[in-house]
């Protein structure tokens, strides 16, 4: 098995995985340098909706370089996979608004997208310090859900992404602490589902099977899930209510098949890993990173686990 893994990684490292022809990237730096030595670039084809949203954000920013407008300019830029530019925007905003936990929250998120986990942890930890004592505030959605109602708070997103950054580094003990804090601000079924999912996986990586099983009591058929259906499916698989193959199989009618595969597939890969089938887990992680959503958390986590398997 070790020999086959090594050969596969050699093949991976000899292949330049991109979302578009690098020659069309106008000689720009890659947006992401993966944990497996690959490079990813922003798409060059127009996206009318995202381009229009960015144009509005630019107009608003030019009229008023407020904290909010820095945030929206950075977010709209990042949605177009222009992470280098977005991080520069957030950094400029932080220089102007050094006590903005929201700017640190968003820059931290995009450092995760770039696999710069230490930088993400520094930013998100700074956000934790700055938001102490601030009442929960709903964070506006840049890409609205199906009911057009934001479900998460800034506080949730800070703790959630901080836990994720530690998890991706393999620091499960510190990830656990962040997710337990995140549970305190998970105040609807979607947020509970998302936090429980990552905390469950963290517990399993730490060998805390009893704690992980106790956590599953929070997941019930009565939950109303608006955004996190893929997490909900993963959790029901962990509970033994869905077979792993059904979770790995993504319906072609899904709004974003590659994104659902990245999310659901990572959970299935973990399920096999927990149950001692490293070969099957490896194969599923490979399937996930063959998709196009290189910034999906399941994609990044699959990458991180593959990198650890290589070691």
How would you sum up the major sheet? Answer: 2 strands, antiparallel
Low-confidence stretches: 1-27
Global shape: globular
Distance between the termini: 13 Å
How much helical structure, as a percent, in the residues? 55-70%
The topology string of helices and strands comes to: HEEHHHHHHHHHHHHHH
Count the E strands.
Answer: 2
Count every helix, treating DSSP H or I runs of 4 or more residues as helices: 15
- By secondary-structure content and strand pairing, the structural class works out as mainly alpha
Describe this structure in words.
There is one protein chain. The chain is 62% helix and 1% strand. The chain is mainly α and 311 residues long. The chain has a two-stranded antiparallel sheet with strand order 1-2. A hairpin with a 5-residue loop joins strand 1 and strand 2 (39-40). Helix 4 (83-96) packs antiparallel against helix 5, helix 11 runs parallel beside helix 13 and helix 13 packs antiparallel against helix 14 (278-289). The longest helix has 18 residues, at 257-274. The protein is globular, with a radius of gyration of 19 Å. The model is unreliable at 1-27 (pLDDT under 50).
Fold topology:
Layout: H1 2-13, E1 32-33, E2 39-40, H2 48-63, H3 67-79, H4 83-96, H5 101-113, H6 117-130, H7 154-169, H8 172-184, H9 189-205, H10 209-215, H11 229-238, H12 244-248, H13 257-274, H14 278-289, H15 297-310
Antiparallel strand pairs: 1-2
Helix pairs in contact: 2-3, 3-4, 3-5, 4-5, 5-6, 5-7, 6-7, 7-8, 7-9, 7-15, 8-9, 9-10, 9-11, 11-13, 13-14, 13-15, 14-15
């Amino acid at each position: 098995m070790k020999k086959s893994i090594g050969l596969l990684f050699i093949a991976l490292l000899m292949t330049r995985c991109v979302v578009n022809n690098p020659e069309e990237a106008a000689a720009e730096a890659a947006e992401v340098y993966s944990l497996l030595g690959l490079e990813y670039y922003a798409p060059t084809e127009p996206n009318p909706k995202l381009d229009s949203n960015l144009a509005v954000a630019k107009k608003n920013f030019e009229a008023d370089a407020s904290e909010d407008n820095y945030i929206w300019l950075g977010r709209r830029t990042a949605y177009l996979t222009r992470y280098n530019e977005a991080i520069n925007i957030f950094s400029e905003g932080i220089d102007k608004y050094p006590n903005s936990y929201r700017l640190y929250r968003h820059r931290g998120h995009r450092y995760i997208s770039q696999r710069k986990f230490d930088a993400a942890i520094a930013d998100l930890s700074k956000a934790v310090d700055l938001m102490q004592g601030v009442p929960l505030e709903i964070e506006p959605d840049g890409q609205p859900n199906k009911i057009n109602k934001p479900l998460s708070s800034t506080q949730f997103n800070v703790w959630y992404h901080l836990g994720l950054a530690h998890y991706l580094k393999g620091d499960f003990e510190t990830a656990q602490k962040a997710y337990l804090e995140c549970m305190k601000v998970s105040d609807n079924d979607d947020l509970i589902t998302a936090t429980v999912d990552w905390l469950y996986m963290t517990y399993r990586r730490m060998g805390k099977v009893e704690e992980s099983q106790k956590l599953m009591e929070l997941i019930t058929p009565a939950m109303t899930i608006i955004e996190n259906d893929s997490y909900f499916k993963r959790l029901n698989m962990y509970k033994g209510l869905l077979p792993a193959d059904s979770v790995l199989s993504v319906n072609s009618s899904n709004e974003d098949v590659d994104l659902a595969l990245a999310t659901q597939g990572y959970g299935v890969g973990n399920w096999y890993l927990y149950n001692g089938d490293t070969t099957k887990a490896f194969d599923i992680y490979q399937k996930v990173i063959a998709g196009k959503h290189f910034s999906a958390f399941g994609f990044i986590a699959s990458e991180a686990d593959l990198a650890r398997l290589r070691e």
